[in-house]
Design goal:
This protein has about 475 residues and is an alpha/beta fold. It has 11 helices and 15 strands. It has helices at about 5-15, 50-60, 90-95, 110-115, 140-150, 190-200, 210-215, 250-260, 275-280, 285-305, 420-430, and strands at about 35-40, 100-105, 155-160, 205, 220-225, 265-270, 310-315, 320, 320-325, 355, 395, 400-405, 415, 455-460, 465. Helix 5 runs parallel beside helix 6 (about 190-200).
């Protein structure tokens, strides 16, 4: 979600409301503090979500494809995991006695959410079916989520295939996905349920919207929701029926209501993951509607929390080679064709769309197609790419950071990406800053950026949400 994506989504939001669009302000653009994040990794000028999310969730830049490991580890090398794991957000907040959760529209084992809780030499080791031939005793990411992070109170997303035994039918598909389901024969959803029952905890496992809607956060302390075998559906395609899926905003709402019951505060990671996926397909319309779905989640987070005790950080792990150009008139459909008149005309006389990509599968081989004869506003239309690739790549430019709440003023300029994690630990007094809030006098909680608050709720959207409470000495 780079700056061009935010700009295009801003225009789209306005146009869906009957305005020209350019003057619109998205919910997170109202936040009082803003900065920029430098997204390069230790070994790549333009990198992937595992390295960037590790920077944001763990406070260190690392190498391409590594999850929760330092840059001394080597991708795909199991032996290099040992001794190179680093503490990250789930570790920090759990160690301080606070609740944690993650919400995503991707597989919950995908790179960005995994960096909050897992340690892996490969982001691709999501299930044991992805680790055939790997030696050294490393555990897949799904295994780690259930067995090493049983304290996590909210886990919502897709990726059910990595949790089900190869011998079991998927409850939605009514057949096995034998290429991806677990080769060890273990049903991790049952492991999760057995653990909660053994410890007399109020817990619900769900896989569709009707089951999700039936959960009452007032009497439920743990939720595991896996709504698709793979990634969840795009917002434009989402089935809202009985066996469908909740929206990102609905998942965020329920997550916060469960986590808010912890008087010590909480950490919640919320990821609008499919913004990225649609961009990789050169599909601007699906991507931008995913941004609007994420904005709805931000609105929900601001509605349910108090700026005096909750830090919300909205950012992205990286950008894409996505461009807005061509001198279109004010209010021109953001998915439309640039008027082929005046200084907007192309040298070959063939019209083009406002939105274009630097590379990707939609490269127009041979002569350019006259897009005037095509419905470029259809959700399946793929904007033209300048260079051919099987999948569009990430962009290497800085991305925005938006923040509100206690310590949000620390987001103030151009930052290294791993700085975000240090803001979180400093604001919440966890991890390396666990002693910071001790021996500080009580002050008025009305000061939104007070540094005397001991317990913070953090929501990271992407989103980060933290809540702070008064220190009582």
């Amino acid at each position: 979600m780079g700056i061009s994506t935010v700009t295009a989504a801003r225009i789209l939001r306005g146009q869906t409301q009957g305005a020209t669009g350019e003057e619109t302000v998205l919910e997170f653009e109202k936040f009082p503090d803003i900065g920029l994040s430098k997204t390069y990794s230790n070994d790549r000028q333009t990198t992937d979500s595992a390295a960037t999310a590790t920077a944001m969730m763990c406070g260190q830049k690392t190498n391409y494809h590594l999850v929760g490991l330092s840059d001394q580890a080597r991708a795909q090398d199991c032996s290099s995991e040992h001794g190179n794991d680093i503490p990250c957000t789930f570790d920090w907040f759990h160690s301080d006695g606070r609740s944690v959760g993650v919400v995503t529209t991707a597989r919950i084992t995908h790179a960005t959410p995994a960096c909050a809780y897992a340690k892996s030499a490969s982001r691709n080791w999501e299930g044991d079916s992805d680790m055939v031939g790997v030696t050294g005793g490393c555990k897949d990411i799904a295994y780690q989520l259930i067995n090493n992070n049983s304290y996590a109170k909210v886990l919502l997303g897709g990726g059910r295939q990595f949790f089900l035994s190869m011998n079991d039918s998927d409850p939605e598909l009514n057949h096995t996905n034998s290429d991806k389901q677990r080769l060890d024969g273990v049903d991790l959803t049952q492991v999760w349920k057995d653990d909660k029952e053994k410890n007399n905890l109020s817990a619900k496992y769900v896989w569709n919207k009707s089951q999700f809607d039936a959960i009452d956060p007032r009497d439920t302390d743990y939720i595991l929701g896996l709504f698709e075998a793979g990634h969840m559906q795009y917002e434009l395609d989402r089935d809202n029926g009985t066996n469908g899926e909740p929206s990102l905003a609905e998942m965020t709402q329920k997550a916060i209501r469960v986590l808010q019951k912890d008087e010590n505060g909480f950490f919640l990671l919320v990821e609008g993951a499919r913004i990225d996926h649609a961009h990789h397909d050169n599909n601007a319309k699906r991507s931008l509607y995913e941004v609007l779905a994420m904005e709805d989640a931000v609105k929900m987070a601001t509605k349910l929390t108090d700026e005096r005790d909750t830090l919300i950080i909205v950012t992205a792990d990286h950008s894409h080679v996505f461009n807005i150009a061509g001198y279109p008139e004010r209010g021109n459909d953001i998915f439309g064709v640039v008027s082929n008149v005046g200084d907007a005309i192309a040298e070959d006389g063939i019209p083009f769309t406002t939105l274009l990509y630097g590379n990707g599968a939609s490269y127009d081989w041979g002569n350019r197609t006259n897009v005037s004869a095509i419905d470029t506003t259809h959700k399946d239309y793929l904007q033209v790419a300048a260079a051919p690739r099987e999948s569009e790549t990430h962009g290497g430019e800085d991305v925005s950071i938006y923040a509100r709440g206690p310590m949000s003023h620390l987001i103030h300029g151009v930052h290294e990406q791993h700085y975000i994690a240090h803001v979180i630990t400093y604001a919440a007094c966890v991890g390396e800053n666990s002693q910071r809030c001790e021996n500080q006098p009580d002050t008025n909680l009305n000061a939104a950026n007070s540094n005397s608050l001991n317990y913070l709720n953090v929501i990271c959207v992407m989103i980060c949400i933290l809540r702070l409470y008064h220190v009582h000495l």
